[in-house]
Structures are given as structure tokens and as C-alpha cells.
Write a structure and sequence with these properties.
This is NWD1/2-like winged helix-turn-helix domain-containing protein. The protein is α+β, with helices and mostly antiparallel strands. It has a 4-stranded antiparallel β-sheet with strand order 7-72-71-70. The protein has a 4-stranded antiparallel β-sheet with strand order 8-41-40-39, with no helix packed on it. It has a 4-stranded antiparallel β-sheet with strand order 9-10-11-12, with no helix packed on it.
């Protein structure tokens, strides 16, 4: 066979791994015949053997001899042999054997059983064959043509007698836990297919019946007998076949039905029952989950190859993306499928059905379902988002453009990523500094990161140090003369470096020998340097002259005056053209070259296309026929043959001129990268965080891709793989995009720039407001889709913020850096700051129901400066401000509002003892919001009759009662008011106590003293259920507040409990990237979900089931918790926004910027920043070029006699 021939050709000629089996000789065939007959106790006469010699001369294969022996075993010694009765080929011999079997056992039994055996591919067991024959109406009609049995199944001996005659040609083996039989030789399968499976309709019937059998369709119900004799009246009979479940449960031991997993997909496909293949296999959660557990994920992926479609491809890609998570914990599979495929829920019916199954049937494995999509979406242009340990600065593709090298300037490690598989391969230790790589990827060239005086060469594969080049050892540097390393150009064996002092030097060195070949002193300063595509010439300038040197003869080839100092130069691949530009004029100089010499030069004026622009870069097209000219705001394509501009791409109108990024200042947004695609038909460019793809011939924008928040600083295009690699400035990850998928519009989720610090939700739960640690940004997330619909940035990091219940207004407190603007009040409907005030940060308090925001802050930053309470009341789009006359000396923790906004509760104190570093007389101060903020006080003396309070350690509002708060305190003396207390009323020493205080009447509703164990140390706030009947400590101990004792403990986790959900029935934890949930009543886990990034914050929505998760990488995830044992999943899903079907919206194939990216309307000039509350303030940015120079007369001086008349004035900025 071809496979065997390839194996032999690839093997060592002297290898003994292969033994060639040559055809048997006639004598060897005769000996084999005698041996085969001897097994039956038979023999042939010499005359009979000589007759068979003529047969073996035509075919002497061992299988043919064995088939002849089967025919000869019935011949008597006195019988003559007619060679015409024997076939002359192996195929004819097998056909003859089947003909004999048909005569003996009947055509229907032989043909159908052989068809099932071959159709199964992997073979069948005896019981499976009997079941299939019992389901076959053709076989059963023949067997029971004269009577109707009570048990409608094929008699056991029918198949066993047939198998006994051909058993010697079977191989027996274990397949999926079942002993099956199949043909030893492929010739049998081939002949049977040609003989019995040559009719398409009969073939489909065979495959369809096998599929029905393994699906268990006819288990426990009668199957109609479909034969012609019934005249339309089809009696039905129970064939007593097994049920074929996905799993077998034997006293708690689960065994998977692997035979079903192997057979069903193949036979549904062969029977062309593609709808059932989709419904029962490819888009069936139970099938996918159990088959992965029984076999592997690769077996499932192989099923998708049977019926490739758009939807099937998306599910397959989702499984591939989730492979690592699924292999780690398969119970994550439901959430992984839903999270990755949610964007297709509206438009793809099969995917919608699969996601619904994950949301319902998948709850048995994980009770958390994603509320909005995950970051990586199948079918989108984003292939991978690969993380680095630090922001990388240097990127280069090697190894057939499969491997990406990344390096940080301050690090010695070069990191290698496989951009095809999306994984990090290794790290190579080299040197600190800037990274350059030879075109063949063999050497790293690293420039010393401090002085730039040393050029180090390392082996790229091992990182081994090869040598270094130090330019200063070869040039004379004058005292106080500055040294600077300029452009670096590489071939596989040469380095060209520009070094500048008062003048510049062109340094040419050999990479392998680490030796300078020539150091050429230039008369002036060099700005550009490049090497021709063939590696033969190097071009560089000296002031306004262009020099060409031969890299191998080191001779000066040409000198040409270009009339300006260039800022950019490129040479065509055929070395027949060179293109130069400068930063002062929008003209393209074209040089005609011949062997490195300039034969003609002229300029092409580009002012028509690039008015008031600056040319930043030039690129040559892959076919060498065009030049890409990138300016700050325009991109041009210049045709070499026509010598004119054939395409012009202007700055997109939805990109602001400037933008304030988080943790940054206002930055001008310009084109940062531009490149041709591999065919040269399209142009890729980046500006801000957007990637644009334009078609050259039509000048039309094809599509837009949005990267995460930031400015795309680096872009690398891989022509061979159509991959695009982008890196956001100061970001710890880079993105790998597939441009072939870029035409599919897809909303990508955004990330914030740091670890999530706080999450707040609107009253309806449809919008989340998110802040980062030590950052000035607030992200506004739409909870239905997970898309960031707005990004608010400020002048300094956000300390605290609050929102109104509808999310229409936000109050933001910042770190004070500038006078009178440390607090900002936003009108989010018009995205405008309507008030700026304050010089100190404070507490922003969000209401639950009413339209107001409270702010508690000092007026100046000082330890004992009083705190004032200000209320901003919103009514009819107008904001009124009221500051309470009472000033509080201290605020010990963030104040809060009771559940219906009736009271503001503040923990304060009378005095602070610096010597003891403690507050004296802790006081609960309440403000009635309905009674013009009437004030009430509760001090330890207020409770003296019942409890002795030393200090208050925590306060929380009671969610089920708007007039009560829960107070945890330390008591001076342990007093036991609970008969069931485990401490026996032992007194002495300060212990924790707990009470529920009615702040309306001032009465204590509940007291639990002592509270928890005496040795308990409060490290973080305790978790209470909604009714405050029990609480959980850091060790997951359950304390019954009403009984005053511990009643149990949940399974110990690596982290403390984070939330109590579903009205006190489920406890939520997170540890690293895993979000988990446990049922409180039994302690059993009901969910464990990987959110793909380490979790750092969690917010439980008011519905007690929606969880918003903030991660360390700035991403936001949301999950809905459903306990399948306690509630109906469908009743929850029908109210879940991301699972609601919407009217289809027309799409253009392009994605425009989201609102906070866009230029705002209004005013005489477009604005990219929110309108300030203080117009024309000194904080507004003013460009220096807009300031008129102010002439100032230089004072006369007798000591400055050398000055001329033009030196008497200067311009003061």
C-alpha cells in the first residue's frame, strides 16, 4: 500500500523493522493448503493436489489458499477436481464464499448481517448483531414468514451458526469495553461493500438502523414491521432491545456507554440524518459532556468534522479555546460554552439551543451561568491575548513567522511565544537592553540599556554570549563631547550602526566574528540608515547628502545631494528606487538607482492629500509596486509605475483629536502604525485603540477592530499567516488577531487598566460602575452585554464614588492634587461634569431608592479637621445642595444608608488619645433623611443597662428592616444572656458582642453576648444572612445568632467566604481565578467556575443571585447563580437580559467607536473631553503654539558690545 511504501522509504535501509512478505510460491501454497486441511483432519490425493497447482499458479496469496482449503475440506478422495469451480483471484474467491453462505443461510440474513458488520467499522459483538437483526424487518419477515412468535426476536442460533462458518476470518478484540468481531482482512470489507452496499438507499437504511439501535429509539416500544405484504397495515412488535443510555449506573458506579459515543455520530452522518446529528450530538450538552468524560475532547472535535457548518465550527472553536479549562475541570464546560458562544445566542438557533441546555442541564455540574460573554469569542478576529510578566518594549517574528520574540528593556530575558498555538514556549537569558534580531532569527543583537556604548551579540537559540562590539574603542571622543547611538540595520551576517558625536560615524561589523570591518567618519550628522533588500548596499545621510556603500567591498559607491536632512528612507526590493521624506514638508523624494548609484531624482508634492500634516513613515508593498506614506492624520498609497497617489485614507471622524487615558494626561491621537497586507490589496493602520483595514483600489474602509483601552504602540503583521500582533502602550499583554476573520463584526469586551477595586450597580442591575486600584478611571459596564459603554477619567486617582439609583448622576472623590477640584459631580446623561469642588477626599454614599447622593468629607486635609455632610438632591434634572450644620470630629469608617434610605448612620467618636492611639467614646450618629436630617446619638452609655460596650468594631444595615442596624462591638465584661452559650457564662476580659439596634426607637432588638469564640480575631467584616439570623467567620464556621452558638462549618476553603446569596441558602467563595458556591444546608459544592483571571473583588446584586466579579487584569465578569434543587431554571432565565431574543439589527460589517471614544457634538470645535464645570479655568490645556510671542527689550550693557541689532529682543513664552 501507499502507507507501507512511505514507511519503508522513510526507514533506515539497514533497519529490521520491516519484513517484506513476497507472494507464496506454488509449492509453499501447496504446503499451506495441506496444513489448513489437516486442522479439519482432511487430506487430498496427489492427483487432486496437482490439479490445484494450476489454480495456485494464478493466485497464491495465503488468504486465497485458506479459502480454497474451505472448499476442499468437503471433497472426497475419489472425487475429481474441476479447476473451473475454483476462483482465480482473491476477490472472486470471497464472493464465492458469500454465495455459498447465501445458499445455506438465506440471502437476507447473510447480506444484512455482513452489511451491519462492515458498516459498524469497529466491529460488532454477538448481542449487538442479534439486536440489529431483530430490528431488521427484512430479516424478520423472512424468518417468521409462516408464523408469528410470542417473542419478536431473531433466534440465537441463526447468527451463531452463520458466524461459526466464517469465524476463522474474524479477529476478536476489546472495543470500548465490549468484545467485538471484525474481518481480519480488508478485502472482505471491500467485497461486501461492492456486493451489498452498492445501492445508496439500502446503504442509508443500514446506517440509519444502526443509528436507531445505538440511540435506543426502539427500546420499550413496538417497532412497526415495514414490509410490502402488510398492504399498508403495519403491525408493530417490541424487539426487546436495550435502552442505550449515555451512562450506566450500577449501585453508584457510573460506566459510560462508549459504544454509543463511537457509533451514533458516524451513522447519523452516513444516513444523512444531519438534523438529528446536530440536535443529538453536535449541539447536545449532555452528549458533549459525557463523551469528553468517557473519551476525550479530541473525540468530540472529531465529531464536528462530520458536518462542518458555520455553527458547528463556532462550537468546535469554543471547545478548543476552552480546552485547558475543561481538561482541568470538566464541570466548567457548561459555563465555558455559554460564555464563549453568547454573542451568537440571538442569531444562531442551534447555538441558542446548546446554550440553553448549558444553562439548564449544565446546572448539575455548575450552578453559575455567565451573564455576558467571555473575552475570547470564536469566530472573532481576536485569536489570543497573551500575558507577559511586564510591559514589553521590543517585538520581532522569527521561525517562519510562527514565533514572536518579546523583551523588556530593563530585563535580560527574551520571551518566545507561539502565536499559532497561543502559548509561551520558553525564555532565553541574554542581556539587558534594546533587542534586534537578524532576519534569519539566528542572533540577538542587544544594545546596552544604560550607556548604549556596547553592542552585544547572543545566540538566539540558547542565549549564549557570542561577543560584543564597543564603538568607543575605535573612535576618538573629545572631552565633553556627547555620544549617541542612532539607527541599527541588520543582515544575516552584517551590522550597520550609526554613532553620533559632533559628527556621525557609519560602523560596519561582522556578526559571526564580532569584529568591526570599517568605521567611516561622516562630515555631518546622520539621521537615517537602511540596507537594501539584497543585503548588498547600505544607504545613509550626512546632513543633506546621501551616501551609498557596498557592504562587502566597503567602498563608497555614490554620493548625492538631496537638499534636506531626511527623516525616513526606504529602498525598493529590486534596489531600483529609493524614497525619502523629512519632517518639514509633505513631499516624497524619489531616487532612481542603478547598482547603488543615483541616476535621477525628483519630488512628488503631497500637499493636496496631507495639508498641515507630517510624514512619519514609509513602507514598500510586497509586490514592490507601491509606497505607503504614513502621516499623523493621513495615509497615502503612492503607485510606483504611475508615479501618483492612488489611495488616500484620512483620519476616521469618530476618533477624537486628543484623549485622556487612565493614569495619564491628555494625549494627541495620531496614526501610530501602517502596513500593507501580504497581497498589497489592503492597508492596515492603527490609531488610538482601533485597527483599520482599507481596500486600496476602492479607497473604502473594510472593517474596524477595537483593541483594549489604550494606544496601540506596536503592530507587527505576519504576511504568511495573516496574523496581526498589537501591543497597547504600558500593557502587560499583547493581542494576536486573525485578519481573515476581521470582516465579521463582533463586540469585544474591554478591560480597565488595573485590578478592580470597587463595583456598584444601579437599582435595576442593568449597569455596573467600576473603579481600579490607584487609578483615575471609572468604567461603565452594560450588564446585559458586558460592553464598556463609558469611561470616565479624572485628574487624580479615584478614592470613592457614588451613583444615583438610576445611574444618571455620579459623585467622585479624588486624591487632592489641585485646589478646589478634588470632588466632581457628573451628569452621566450628557456626560458632563456639572460641579467641581473640595480640597480633601471623602466618603461618597449611594442611595438605594431616592435621587440624591451624600458626601461626607473634611474641608481641608488635616487630622482633626471636622467632617461635614453634604446632600446633593436631584429633582427634574436640577441639583440642589444642602450641607448639614453639624460637624463631626471623626468618622471612623464609611457611613451608610439604611435599606430604604431613611437614615444615614455614621460611626464617630468624642476624642482621640494619641498616647494610647485609640478613640474615646465611640458614638453611633444617625441622620433622619425624612426629617430634615434630624440627628440622634447612641453612645456606650445608651446601652449601659443591658451591655457594657468598650468599642464598636463594625456596623452594617439590616436589609430586611429599614429601621435597624447590626452592631458588632467589644464588651468590657463577658455577660451570658443565652442559655445555650458554649462558654458557660465565664466572665473576665474583653470579648466580642453583637446587637441589632432599632435606630428609630433607640431600643435593642437582639443581643448576642458573648459573640463567637473568645479567641476569635476579627480580620475582615463578617458575612451575615439577609435576616441576620446567622453569620460566617473567616474559617467558614456558622454561628447561629439567635441560639448564640456555632451550629456547623462548611468545607474549609483556601479563602474566606465572600458573599451569602439566594436569600441565605448559598455561600460564595473565590480563590485565585476560581469562583465557587456551596449549599449552606448540606455543605455540598454546587459550582466551581474558572473566570480566566485572578479575582480581586465581588459584588452581589440586589436580586441575591447576580454576581459581578472584578479581576486583577482589569476585566469584569458576571454570573447568575441558580440552585437547580431549589428553583426552576427556566423561570430565572426568562427574566435574564442576555437570554432575551431581540429584533435583529442591521450591521454594516464595521464597528464604530463606542460613545466614549467619539468626538462630542456641540461648540465651534469638536471636543474629545467632557465639558468642564468651570469654563476657561487655568487647568484647561492651551497649546504653546497658540501663544503670541511677547517682545522684550534686552537691556543695554557696555559688556555686550559684540551684539548686533538683531540681538536686542527675544521672544518670551
Amino acid at each position: 500500500s501507499t502507507i507501507a511504501q512511505k514507511l519503508c522509504n522513510g526507514a533506515d535501509k539497514n533497519s529490521r523493522s520491516f519484513v517484506e512478505l513476497k507472494p507464496l510460491s506454488v509449492s509453499e501454497a501447496d504446503d499451506l493448503l495441506c496444513y489448513c486441511l489437516s486442522r479439519y483432519g482432511r487430506t487430498l490425493s496427489n492427483q487432486q493436489r496437482s490439479e490445484l497447482t494450476n489454480v495456485f499458479q494464478k493466485c497464491s496469496q495465503p488468504l486465497f489458499v485458506s479459502l480454497c482449503a474451505e472448499k476442499c475440506k468437503c471433497i472426497h478422495s475419489n472425487d475429481s477436481i474441476d479447476t473451473a469451480d475454483f476462483s482465480t483471484s482473491l476477490g472472486d474467491s470471497i464472493s464465492a464464499m458469500l454465495t455459498d453462505l447465501e445458499k445455506k443461510h438465506g440471502y437476507e440474513l447473510v447480506s444484512r448481517s455482513m452489511s451491519y458488520l462492515v458498516g459498524s467499522v469497529t466491529g460488532l459483538s454477538d448481542s449487538e448483531m442479534e439486536d440489529l437483526l431483530s430490528l431488521d424487518d427484512h430479516v424478520m419477515s423472512v424468518i417468521y414468514s409462516n408464523h408469528k412468535p410470542s417473542l419478536w426476536r431473531i433466534p440465537h442460533n441463526k447468527w451463531l451458526r452463520l458466524k461459526d462458518e466464517i469465524d476463522r476470518y474474524f479477529v476478536q478484540r476489546e472495543v470500548d469495553g465490549v468484545t467485538v468481531y471484525r474481518w481480519k482482512d480488508e478485502q472482505f470489507n471491500q467485497i461486501i461493500r461492492e456486493r451489498y452496499l452498492n445501492d445508496e438507499s439500502k446503504t442509508k437504511e443500514i446506517y440509519s438502523l444502526i443509528a436507531d439501535y445505538y440511540l435506543g429509539i426502539w427500546h420499550g416500544k413496538p417497532k412497526p414491521l415495514s414490509t410490502a405484504e402488510d398492504n399498508g397495515k403495519s403491525p408493530a412488535f417490541d424487539r426487546h432491545v436495550p435502552s442505550q443510555p449515555l451512562t450506566f449506573d450500577n449501585d453508584g458506579q457510573v460506566r459510560f456507554n462508549r459504544r454509543k459515543y463511537d457509533q451514533v455520530p458516524r451513522h447519523l452522518y452516513n444516513a444523512e440524518r444531519l438534523d438529528e446529528l446536530n440536535r443529538l450530538v453536535l449541539f447536545n450538552y449532555e452528549w458533549i459532556y459525557n463523551k469528553i468524560k468517557a473519551l476525550s475532547l479530541q473525540h468530540i472535535i472529531a465529531d464536528f468534522a462530520l458536518n462542518p457548518s458555520n455553527e458547528a465550527s463556532l462550537v468546535e472553536e469554543a471547545l478548543r479555546v476552552a480546552e485547558q479549562v475543561i481538561e482541568k475541570d470538566i464541570d466548567n464546560m457548561a459555563s465555558e460554552i455559554s460564555g464563549h458562544l453568547l454573542p451568537y445566542y440571538q442569531t444562531h438557533p442551534n447555538i441558542r439551543a446548546l446554550v440553553h441546555q448549558c444553562d439548564t442541564a449544565g446546572l448539575k455540574q455548575c450552578a453559575l451561568i455567565p451573564n455576558f460573554p467571555y473575552l475570547q469569542i470564536p469566530g472573532s478576529s481576536l485569536q489570543f491575548a497573551l500575558k507577559c510578566g511586564a510591559p514589553m518594549e521590543y517585538f520581532s517574528l522569527i521561525g517562519d513567522e510562527r514565533f514572536l520574540l518579546t523583551k523588556e528593556r530593563e530585563s535580560s530575558f527574551v520571551h518566545i511565544f507561539d502565536v499559532v498555538l497561543g502559548e509561551k514556549k520558553s525564555s532565553v537569558f541574554a542581556s539587558n537592553g534594546a533587542l534586534y534580531v537578524t532576519p534569519n532569527g539566528r542572533y540577538f543583537i542587544i544594545i546596552d540599556h544604560v550607556t548604549e556604548k556596547s553592542v552585544k551579540i547572543h545566540n538566539a537559540e540558547t542565549g549564549a554570549y557570542v561577543g560584543q562590539l564597543i564603538v568607543l574603542n575605535h573612535i576618538d571622543l573629545k572631552p565633553k563631547e556627547k555620544y549617541k547611538l542612532g539607527s541599527i540595520c541588520l543582515t544575516n551576517d552584517r551590522i550597520c550602526a550609526i554613532v553620533s558625536t559632533d559628527v556621525s560615524y557609519l560602523c560596519i561589523a561582522s556578526i559571526e566574528s564580532c569584529q568591526f570591518l570599517q568605521i567611516i567618519g561622516l562630515d555631518g550628522k546622520c539621521d537615517v540608515c537602511t540596507i537594501s533588500h539584497d543585503g548588498k548596499y547600505v544607504f545613509c545621510n550626512s546632513n543633506e547628502f546621501l551616501f551609498t556603500y557596498n557592504l562587502y567591498t566597503l567602498e563608497l559607491v555614490a554620493t548625492f545631494s538631496i537638499g534636506f536632512r531626511p527623516s525616513c528612507i526606504v529602498v525598493s526590493k529590486d534596489c531600483m528606487r529609493a524614497y525619502l521624506t523629512n519632517n518639514f514638508e509633505t513631499k516624497l523624494m524619489i531616487l532612481h538607482l542603478n547598482q547603488g548609484k543615483v541616476e535621477m531624482a525628483y519630488k512628488s508634492v503631497l500637499n493636496k492629500y496631507m495639508a498641515d500634516d507630517t510624514i512619519m513613515d514609509l513602507r514598500i508593498s510586497p509586490k514592490d509596486d507601491m509606497v505607503l506614506v504614513r502621516g499623523l492624520n493621513n495615509i497615502l498609497v503612492y503607485n510606483r509605475a504611475n508615479e501618483r497617489v492612488i489611495a488616500s485614507f484620512t483620519r476616521p471622524v469618530d476618533i477624537p483629536k486628543e484623549f485622556k487615558l487612565p493614569r495619564s494626561h491628555y494625549t494627541d491621537l495620531v496614526f501610530t502604525n501602517a502596513e500593507f497586507t501580504h497581497s498589497g490589496k489592503f492597508v492596515i493602520a492603527t490609531i488610538f485603540r482601533n485597527i483599520y483595514l482599507w481596500e486600496v483600489t476602492t479607497n473604502e474602509l473594510v472593517t474596524t477592530i477595537q483593541a483594549p483601552v489604550g494606544i496601540i504602540k506596536e503592530m507587527i503583521y505576519s504576511p504568511k499567516r495573516s496574523h496581526l500582533i498589537t501591543h497597547i502602550e504600558h500593557c502587560h499583554e499583547f493581542q494576536v488577531w486573525n485578519l481573515d476573520e476581521a470582516v465579521k463584526p463582533m463586540n469585544m469586551l474591554d478591560k480597565l487598566t488595573g485590578a478592580i477595586a470597587d463595583i456598584q450597580l444601579t437599582q435595576d442591575g442593568e449597569t455596573a460602575y467600576v473603579t481600579c486600584k490607584c487609578s483615575d478611571e471609572i468604567g461603565v459596564i452594560e450588564m446585559k452585554t458586558g460592553i464598556m459603554v463609558d469611561l470616565l477619567t479624572h485628574d487624580s486617582p479615584v478614592v470613592d464614588f457614588a451613583i444615583t439609583p438610576s445611574g444618571g448622576y455620579a459623585l467622585v472623590s479624588l486624591e487632592p492634587r489641585k485646589k478646589d477640584i478634588s470632588t466632581k459631580l457628573w451628569n452621566l446623561k450628557v456626560r458632563q461634569v456639572i460641579k467641581e469642588f473640595g480640597n480633601a477626599s471623602g466618603y461618597c454614599i449611594s442611595p438605594h431608592q431616592n435621587d440624591f447622593i451624600l458626601f461626607v468629607s473634611q474641608q481641608e486635609v488635616a487630622f482633626k479637621a471636622p467632617f461635614f455632610i453634604t446632600m446633593f438632591q436631584i429633582s427634574d434634572e436640577e441639583v440642589s445642595e444642602f450641607t448639614h450644620p453639624l460637624a463631626l470630629r471623626f468618622v471612623l469608617e464609611k457611613p451608610f444608608l439604611t435599606s430604604n434610605d431613611k437614615y444615614l448612620v455614621v460611626l464617630t467618636a468624642h476624642e482621640y488619645h494619641e498616647s494610647r492611639a485609640e478613640y474615646e467614646t465611640p458614638t453611633i450618629c444617625t441622620f433622619s433623611m425624612d426629617e430634615e436630617m434630624k440627628v440622634s446619638y447612641f453612645t456606650p452609655d445608651s446601652f449601659r443597662d443591658s451591655i457594657l460596650i468598650e468599642t464598636i468594631v463594625d456596623m452594617q444595615p439590616c436589609l430586611d428592616n429599614p429601621y435597624t442596624i447590626a452592631v458588632m462591638y467589644k464588651s468590657k465584661e463577658m455577660v451570658d444572656y443565652n442559655d445555650n452559650s458554649p462558654f458557660g457564662g465565664l466572665g473576665g476580659g474583653a470579648r466580642y458582642g453583637f446587637m441589632i439596634l432599632d435606630i428609630c426607637s433607640g431600643s435593642v432588638v437582639t443581643i448576642c453576648d458573648p459573640f463567637l469564640v473568645p479567641s476569635f480575631q476579627l480580620k475582615r467584616k463578617l458575612l451575615f444572612d439577609i435576616s441576620y439570623s446567622f453569620c460566617l467567620d473567616d474559617e467558614s464556621n456558622i454561628f447561629d445568632i439567635r441560639e448564640g452558638c456555632y451550629v456547623g462549618q462548611l468545607p474549609k476553603q483556601n479563602s474566606p467566604p465572600r458573599a451569602i446569596a439566594l436569600n441565605g441558602t448559598v455561600v460564595v467563595y473565590y480563590d485565585r481565578s476560581v469562583l465557587s458556591a456551596y449549599r449552606l444546608s448540606s455543605g455540598e459544592p454546587i459550582a466551581s467556575c474558572d473566570v480566566h483571571s485572578n479575582i480581586c473583588s465581588l459584588r452581589l446584586s440586589r436580586d441575591q443571585r447576580t454576581l459581578v466579579v472584578g479581576c486583577e487584569d482589569g476585566s469584569i465578569a458576571s454570573y447568575v447563580l441558580i440552585d437547580p434543587k431549589a428553583e426552576d431554571p427556566n423561570s430565572v432565565l426568562e427574566h435574564l437580559g442576555s437570554r432575551q431574543l431581540m429584533e435583529p439589527q442591521p450591521t454594516s460589517g464595521r464597528r464604530s467607536s463606542i460613545p466614549w471614544d467619539k468626538i462630542e457634538d456641540g461648540g465651534s470645535a469638536p471636543q474629545s473631553r467632557p465639558v468642564s464645570a468651570v469654563a476657561h479655568d487655568k487647568t484647561d490645556k492651551i497649546l504653546l503654539k497658540q501663544i503670541e510671542p511677547v517682545p522684550a527689550i534686552r537691556p543695554s550693557s557696555d559688556t555686550l558690545m559684540y551684539l548686533n541689532a538683531n540681538s536686542k529682543t527675544c521672544a518670551l513664552m
